[in-house]
Amino acid sequence: MGTAIVWLVDAIVTLLIWMIIASAILSWLFAFDVINHRNRFVNQLSSFLDAVTSPLLAPFRRVIPPLGGMDISPIVLLLLLNFGRILFFQTLARPLVTLLG
Prior knowledge:
By secondary structure, this protein is mostly helical.
């Protein structure tokens, strides 16, 4: 039971990390006009990734101004998610696994 909870938390955080990376790459591809919103699949993918990542990035975007036109809030969020994952494994996951088995 304990390992399942740890796995689920790790899987969710990992998915969020990959969605943030994909959203950032997609925004760069839009900015450099490599791809455009007229492609239906790309537009749906972009809408989905924005819907998932925007609520997470919004608090950071309010505090961190763009630096030279570049938004660094995804980088800050990625660092915090990785820090939270490490903190979770070191402080909560090990005792949870030993307690619940």
